Every structure is written in structure tokens, then in C-alpha cells.
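Thread: quick sanity check before group meeting

JM: Hey all, I'm pulling together slides for Thursday and realized we never actually wrote out the predicted structure for the chain we discussed last week. Dropping the sequence here so it's in one place. If anyone has concerns about the input, flag it before I start.
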Amino acid sequence: MKPGAWAELLRISALFTVPGDALAGAAAAGLRPGRGTAYAVGASLCLYEAGMALNDWADRAEDAIDRPHRPIPSGRVTPRAALATAGALTAAGLALSARAGRPALAVATALAGTVWAYDLKLKHTPAGPAAMAAARALDLMLGATATATATGRAGPARPGEAHGTRRARHAWGAAALLATHTYAVTSVSRHETHGGSTAVPIAALAATVALGCAAVRSGGASAPTATTTATASAVTAAGYLGTAAKPYLHAALNPSPALTQQAVGGGIRAMIPLQSALAARAGAPGTAAALLALAPLARTLARKVSPT
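JM (edit): ok, ran it. Output follows.
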């Protein structure tokens, strides 16, 4: 079991799309990143990679027919090792989220449950894209909740409401936008093996344009100036559209497996500029710039290890 096989199994080129969930969540909640955000990022990375390992374990029979080059069917990673890795990473993710407080652990538990349900049961059902979208939304909310709780700025809790969740509620709008993008990417990914779908990439392209326009709108959070917020939002939204829209259009014009897979890869990489745009619209241009700097790294690594 060589390191290259594990890099392929865990889709390490897609890891750059993960930290932005927590950072965008903190920004959408109107908070600066802090200790809680760091725990959320660590938990998100662990749970994301758990999902990757579990995905290939669950698909090992299908991959033996359609993708025999993948690590498990090719014999480079054993099924037992992949499953054990998924379990260990899930436990590590929950342990890290617990360090940020009980509200964060509750969100992380829901996220972990969604990931396992998607990989083991929902992936090949009509509920698959919605489950994946819910996972990304919960990941963003994990960052918002962990940051709010750890900084002690959550405000008074309502009766029956866990400490830290009130402040985090402001991030649900950003979570919905990220979930919409994820739903579109996942819908396209269901055709990447055999291709043949024109309608799905067109729908994903329409959703991308709508999301790009929505991301430019100011969220009204504590921006230094309206001009800075507007400029940062426009730049990051343009980066998002440029990353996702062109591959979707190509896949719609020629729905071959190769172009469909490129559309999925573009949609995955577009998570980064979208997260950056969500931070910018919330009035956090510094966070937006830091996230946008991850995009070239993700693109470079994707040439060596496929994110799909």
C-alpha cells in the first residue's frame, strides 16, 4: 500500500476545498476565525477524508467493473484498510469538534451521520445529491458554531437552545448557497462514468450563474467599507463563475464521460472561490483573499491526483 495509492483513494487534491467551509461559516456568522475555527477545520478535514475512504469501500464492487484502476479494485489498498481508515478518521473528526464545545460536536455528529448515510445507502438514490448538499451545509455550520461557541460571542441562548447556536444561525444563508452548488456538482457527477446527460450540466450552469450573482450581494456584516466588500465580492464571484461555468458548458455541448468528469472536477475546485465569495459578501475580505490563494494550489495538485 504505497502513499500514492492513499493519495488517490483520499482525493488529496480536493482537500483544499475543505477549510473554506469553516472559514466561510465563521465569516457568515460575523466572527473572526479563532481557536474554534481551527478545531472545525481539523474536524472537517478528517470527516471529509473519512467520506472519501468510505466511498471507495462502498463502491468497490462497482469500481471493479467501471473503474478497475482505482486503489481498492487494483489491489493497492485493501478494503479492510479503507474501512478502518474511514472509522478512525470519523472518530478523530468528532474528537476535534468536541474540543470546540458541545454545539460543535452536535453539528459534527449530524455531519458524520450524513456522510456515512450518503456513502452506504443514499448515493445511488434520488436523495443522493440532497444528502451531499446537506453535508456541505453542515460543514459550513460546523465552522460557524465552533467559532461562535469558542469565542463566547454567541449571545444569550433561547430556551432549549445550545450555547453558541444563536450567533451561528446567521450563517444559514451562506450554507444554503454552498448546498445549492454542491447539489449541482453531485447531480453532474452521477453521469461521469457513462456520460450522456445534457440537461444536468445545463441546469448546473444555470445554478452557477445564479449563485455567482447572489454571492456579489453584500450580506451586511461588519465590512470595513462598502467599496471593499463590493470589490472583493465581484472578484471572488468572477473567479467562481470562471472555474465552474466553462466545464459545465463543455459537458452540456458534448456529454462524454471525459468532459463530464472535467465538469465535476471544475465544480469541486469552484468550491474555493465560492467560499471566498461568501466570506467577502459577509465583510471578511482578508479571509476571502486567503481562501482564494488556495485555488492555484488545488488546480496544480488536481493535475497529479484527480479530485473525483
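AS: nice. The chain has 15 helices and no strands. The CA atoms of residues 7 and 305 lie 7 Å apart.
JM: adding both to the slides.
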